[in-house]
């Protein structure tokens, strides 16, 4: 993973495809580039740390500025949405560069870009479909986000 740096290339296309595969909405402009996505994810993580894992995306929006476009995902559990965003950033970044991504590489990516949050290792271990587009559990991810069964 050390040789893989973020490139804007087709980042948005890969990010949107991964989020869509998870059944999650993606508002325009918040995640159009790797830089914007990382910046907005960092804002969401900080708000989530303050609000706690039981917060919804609607509560996340109220606690921040600039994330109003996320209202399309308002009812979802924020920890699941933020987790999907961080995972999709990593997937899109590595696909854009043709690099592979395993869990260890993802954790390095997460640390490098300061996108780590409490229990994130457990979260991604319990939700591997975020990082592996070929896992057929994608359709169940949206249901888990609504059902409030996160870490």
Spell out the blueprint of helices and strands:
Blueprint: H1 11-21, H2 34-51, H3 57-62, H4 78-97, H5 103-112, H6 120-126, H7 138-147
TL;DR of this structure?
This protein has 151 residues and is mainly alpha-helical. It is built from seven helices and no strands.
How would you portray this structure in words?
This protein is mainly alpha-helical. The chain contains seven helices and no strands. The chain has one domain. It has helices spanning 11-21, 34-51, 57-62, 78-97, 103-112, 120-126, 138-147. It is globular and about 35 Å long.
Shape summary: globular
Structural class: mainly alpha
In sequence order, what are the helices and strands, one letter per element? HHHHHHH
How many strand elements? 0
**Strand fraction band?**
under 5%
List unreliable stretches of 5+ residues: none
What is the CA-atom radius of gyration, in angstroms? 14 Å
Largest sheet: none
Distance between the termini: 27 Å
**Count of structural domains:** 1
Q: What's the mean pLDDT score? A: 77
- Tally of alpha and pi helices: 7
- Binned, the helix content reads 40-55%
């Amino acid at each position: 993973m050390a040789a893989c740096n973020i490139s804007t290339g087709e980042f948005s296309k890969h990010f949107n495809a991964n989020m869509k595969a998870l059944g999650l909405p993606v508002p325009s402009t918040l995640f159009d580039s790797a830089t914007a996505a990382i910046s907005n994810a960092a804002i969401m993580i900080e708000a989530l740390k303050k609000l706690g894992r039981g917060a919804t995306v609607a509560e996340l929006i109220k606690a921040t500025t600039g994330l109003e476009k996320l209202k399309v995902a308002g009812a979802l559990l924020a920890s699941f949405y933020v987790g999907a965003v961080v995972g999709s950033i990593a997937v899109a970044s590595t696909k854009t560069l043709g690099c592979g991504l395993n869990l260890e590489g993802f954790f390095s990516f997460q640390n490098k870009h300061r996108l780590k949050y409490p229990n994130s290792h457990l979260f991604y271990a319990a939700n591997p479909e975020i990082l592996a587009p070929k896992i057929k559990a994608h359709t169940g991810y949206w249901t888990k986000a609504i059902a409030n069964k996160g870490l």
